[in-house]
């Protein structure tokens, strides 16, 4: 590590010289402008003009099962270290390539650009300026809100197509979640964040936690849709479940809004009332048929995950 003395000129100008070796490598000349970014730990990152993230290509020789390969690709996607992935292997069958292409459709920015013989090439075309962590979480939350909306209508009309739509939307929530994970890991690598990304590293951490809980909420909405599609419910049962979903939907929307705006007092208020809400749900569970208990259990889990997001709001308020 090199050290430099801070010089002060005038009353308020602080000057530090740049290492000559670094300046030469960055091809800096007199009069050129460098960019500076402040990190949460107090560090200062200096970026030379026309700096671009170095493109790195990964060559992966793989002869395992398709499920193993898919897990590898998701891990590579989230790691956010490579702009291109070349996969080769003697057992890269047409079916395996089809699975790879289908998987890439669920990974925003990943696209198969070459498919020849025993070789598949995936490029990362993600434009980080377009969808920041904050925007992706907002998008995730909007999809979950819509899923709950469609679930209520599907139950009221016993509409199989709408039930299927609820289940299908879960894939989009998963895509957003993986994108947020990727963006967060990129921040850990100290890659330059999007100019539109206003979150600090600690805030990004809590957004990543919240995104995981939103993804789990979507899973339980999907589970309720799959169960209710097969049940023959009375009108009273439908009304009860629909009311519980609508209550959870309103609470979820409020909690996400409170989280995004870091409203500590509102978060405390929700948590103060959470105990009685959980007690009411447990009492209701004890007086319904076994198959409906599964639905209420999922609604209970939805509220538990929402509660965790509320607690993150209080954590963030301490920054």
What's the arrangement of secondary structure elements?
Elements: E1 7-9, E2 13-15, H1 20-25, E3 35-38, E4 44-47, E5 57-61, H2 66-79, E6 84-88, H3 94-105, E7 110-116, E8 119-124, H4 133-157, H5 160-188, H6 201-230, H7 235-260, H8 264-285, H9 290-316
Parallel strand pairs: 5-6
Antiparallel strand pairs: 1-2, 3-4, 6-8, 7-8
The biggest sheet amounts to:
4 strands, mixed
Number of strands: 8
Number of helices: 9
Summing up helix and strand content along with how strands pair, one would put the structural category as alpha+beta
How confident is the prediction overall: mean pLDDT? 87
So, the CATH homologous superfamily of the largest domain? Answer: Phosphate transport system protein phou homolog 2, domain 2
- What fraction of the residues are assigned to beta strands by DSSP? 5-15%
| Helical percentage | 55-70%
Regions with little confidence, pLDDT below 50 for 5+ residues:
none
């Amino acid at each position: 590590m090199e050290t430099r003395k801070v010089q002060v000129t005038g009353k308020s100008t602080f000057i530090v010289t740049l290492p000559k070796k670094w300046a030469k490598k960055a091809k800096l000349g007199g009069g050129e402008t460098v960019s500076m970014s402040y990190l949460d730990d107090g560090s200062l990152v200096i970026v030379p003009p026309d700096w671009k993230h170095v493109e790195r290509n990964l060559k992966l020789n793989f002869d395992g099962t398709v499920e193993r390969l898919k897990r590898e690709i998701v891990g590579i996607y989230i790691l956010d270290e490579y702009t291109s992935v070349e996969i080769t292997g003697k057992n890269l069958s047409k079916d395996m390539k089809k699975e790879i292409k289908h998987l890439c459709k669920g990974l925003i920015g990943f696209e198969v650009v070459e498919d020849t013989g025993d070789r598949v090439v995936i490029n990362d075309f993600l434009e980080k300026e377009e969808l920041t962590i904050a925007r992706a979480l907002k998008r995730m939350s909007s999809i979950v809100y819509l899923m709950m909306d469609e679930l209520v209508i599907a139950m009221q009309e016993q509409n199989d197509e709408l039930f299927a739509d609820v289940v299908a939307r879960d894939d989009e929530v998963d895509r957003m979640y993986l994108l947020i994970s990727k963006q967060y890991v990129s921040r850990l690598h100290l890659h330059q964040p999007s100019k539109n990304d206003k979150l600090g590293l600690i805030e990004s951490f809590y957004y990543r936690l919240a995104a995981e809980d939103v993804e789990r909420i979507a899973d339980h909405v999907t589970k309720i849709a799959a169960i209710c599609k097969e049940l023959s419910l009375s009108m009273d049962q439908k009304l009860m479940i629909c009311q519980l979903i609508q209550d959870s939907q309103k609470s979820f929307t409020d909690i996400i809004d409170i989280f995004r705006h870091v409203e500590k007092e509102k978060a405390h208020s929700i948590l103060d009332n959470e105990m009685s809400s959980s007690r009411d749900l447990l009492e209701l569970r004890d007086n319904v048929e076994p198959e409906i208990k599964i639905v209420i259990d999922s609604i209970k889990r939805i509220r538990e995950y929402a509660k965790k997001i509320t607690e993150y709001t209080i954590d963030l308020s301490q920054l």
